[in-house]
């Protein structure tokens, strides 16, 4: 085995962290190049998942490499977790945002594209909280936008693609297929949550046990306030109040 193949095929998590730290602290381009070469195949495979070998595959690879470089810059090596757990959602997030911005069949303002996934989430949350489908004004109030913004986003969302969202795209090497719904430009929760979780782990100790429990269930496990209340024996209103208190503490701690 050559020295070069050993470098890129037998790399430990400790080596990865050492390269990242060297690049972040010393701007060592050689360390960055090692990381890029080591993860290039992974980025290409993630790009292939969303391009399915079509013409924009190379574009998605380039977008994925941008995500890789960003992940190298932002990863905190002090956390006891593998870099890949941060890298994958970062790259996928970049790819999905690119697809969101480049694949609409008509021009749609960026703010409308971004509000679409938020409307879906707000609708689900309010349905659970209210026990019925929410009104447009209730969704607008939750998102702190106007009713016109919500209506425009819902209407424009129909212009994303002229094909059915169930339309299958070319199968990959293992015979599986992907639909347009799989690659529609919506927020990648794993991408956003990864950094938030890393920050939370540092500042969670300032909360009470009950507040930590509520944050764990509602933001990390993904339960609704109602589900969290049922799990820990509190009313939804009580959970909501404690959640707001906890979030205020965390925001204040994060700003210090």
From TrEMBL:
UniProtKB keywords: DNA-binding, Sigma factor, Transcription, Transcription regulation
RNA polymerase sigma-70 domain boundaries: 59-72, 224-250
Gene Ontology terms, MF aspect: DNA binding; sigma factor activity
GO biological process, one term: DNA-templated transcription initiation
Origin superkingdom: Bacteria
Any Pfam family the entry gives: Sigma70_r4
Gene3D superfamilies reported for this sequence: 1.20.120.1810, Winged helix-like DNA-binding domain superfamily/Winged helix DNA-binding domain
UniProt cross-references to InterPro entries, sorted A to Z: RNA_pol_sigma-70_dom (IPR014284), RNA_pol_sigma-B (IPR014288), RNA_pol_sigma-B/F/G (IPR014322), RNA_pol_sigma70 (IPR000943), RNA_pol_sigma70_r2 (IPR007627), RNA_pol_sigma70_r3 (IPR007624), RNA_pol_sigma70_r4 (IPR007630), RNA_pol_sigma_r2 (IPR013325)
Family of this protein: Belongs to the sigma-70 factor family.
NCBIfam families membership: SigBFG, sigma70-ECF, Sigma_B
Function text: Sigma factors are initiation factors that promote the attachment of RNA polymerase to specific initiation sites and are then released.
Protein known as: RNA polymerase sigma factor
Organism of provenance: Mammaliicoccus sciuri (Staphylococcus sciuri)
Gene responsible for this protein: sigB
């Amino acid at each position: 085995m050559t020295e070069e193949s050993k470098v890129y095929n037998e790399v430990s998590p400790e080596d990865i962290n050492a390269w990242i730290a060297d690049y972040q602290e010393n701007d060592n381009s050689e360390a960055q190049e090692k990381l890029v070469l080591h993860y290039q195949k992974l980025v290409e495979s993630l790009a292939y998942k969303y391009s399915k070998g079509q013409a924009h595959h190379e574009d998605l690879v380039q977008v994925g490499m941008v995500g890789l470089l960003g992940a190298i810059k932002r990863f905190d090596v002090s956390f006891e977790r593998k870099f890949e757990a941060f890298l994958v959602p970062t790259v996928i997030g970049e790819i999905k945002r690119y697809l969101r911005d480049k694949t609409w069949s008509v021009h749609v303002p960026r703010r409308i594209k971004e509000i679409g996934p938020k409307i879906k989430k707000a609708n689900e949350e309010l349905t659970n909280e209210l026990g019925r489908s929410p009104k447009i004004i209730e969704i607008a109030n939750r998102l702190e936008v106007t009713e016109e913004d919500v209506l425009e986003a819902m209407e424009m969302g129909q212009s994303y693609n002229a094909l059915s969202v169930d339309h299958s795209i070319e199968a990959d090497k293992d015979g599986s297929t992907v639909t347009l719904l799989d690659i529609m430009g919506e927020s990648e929760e794993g991408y956003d949550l990864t950094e938030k979780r890393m920050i939370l782990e540092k500042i969670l100790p300032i909360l009470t046990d009950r507040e930590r429990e509520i944050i764990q269930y509602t933001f990390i496990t993904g339960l609704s306030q109602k589900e969290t209340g049922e799990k820990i024996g509190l009313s939804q209103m009580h959970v909501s109040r404690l959640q707001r208190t906890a979030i205020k503490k965390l925001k204040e701690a994060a700003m210090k």
